[in-house]
Amino acid sequence: MNKAEKEEIITKVTQLLKEIPSSMDIVKKGGDRHKRFEYLATHMVEKAIEKDALIISENRMGIAILFKTSKNDDNFLKDIWTQIKLVLNVTGVKNAYRIVKNQNYIKKQRPQKGEYLYCWFWGILAESRGADTQVGKEMKDEFYRQAKEYQIPLYAETRMRKNALVYQRFGFELFHEWKHPSGDTMYFLRYTPPAKD
Predict the structure, then answer these.
(1) pLDDT score recorded for residue 97
(2) Which residues contact 61 (CB under 8 A, 6 or more apart)?
(3) How much is the pTM?
(4) For residues 53 and 65, is the Cβ–Cβ distance under 8 A?
(5) What is the phi/psi pair of residue 191, to 5°?
(6) What is the DSSP string of 24-61?
(7) In this predicted structure, what is the pLDDT of residue 77?
(8) Which residues have a Cβ under 8 Å from the Cβ of 175 and sit 6 or more positions away?
(9) Which residues make Cβ contacts (< 8 Å) with residue 127, sequence separation at least 6?
(10) Neighbour tally for 107: CB within 10 Å
(11) Measuring CA to CA, which residue among 63, 80, 50, 176 is closest to residue 119?
């Protein structure tokens, strides 16, 4: 991926993050909020490229980050400098404690043993949404291809009810709901792939 392509993806992820309740929660209010969303998007895209986890639809309007991971990968100290920079550039110190507390609860809903795929981010730009665009189906097919290939489950969560319903329509199982401290509900979803042919 060249520099221009990477910048295009970062711009689109920045735009999409502004619609997602979880990112609106963690990005500190006031000042130049756009810059904070941009910093977060850059961090996410760079991490996705580094871990070979970036999925882009054919028309480049759908973007997802799908990590193959396990509980053992979740080493906070390994990433401490990145975490500090995120606190300074995105969340602000006041938000940090609340975010860590929420994240700990969320992570406990994911597998505590073995590998799994985790959908960290999935967004489709407004003009490519809807049943007739096929972008969602194209990306879902890629998620399922990877789950089947690795023979591991796929996990995702969302605080947008309509997205939870789309996930379920695509074959995910809703296995947990949590009354999020923000006042809305977080939906935890899982897809278990069929055995390889």
Answers:
(1) 75
(2) 12, 124, 125, 127, 128, 133, 135
(3) 0.86
(4) yes
(5) -120, 125
(6) HHHSPPSS-HHHHHHHHHHHHHHHHHHTT-EEE-TTS-
(7) 43
(8) 188, 189, 190
(9) 61
(10) 12
(11) 63
Q: Which amino acid is at 23?
A: S
Residue bearing tokens 């939906």: 187
Q: Compute, in degrees rounded to 10, the torsion defined by CA atoms 41, 96, 21, 126.
A: -10
17-75 confidence digits (pLDDT tens) = 999 888 877 778 888 888 988 988 998 899 899 889 999 999 999 999 999 988 877 55
d(CA 34, CA 153): 35
Note the pLDDT tens digit of each residue in 138-161: 999 999 999 999 999 999 999 999
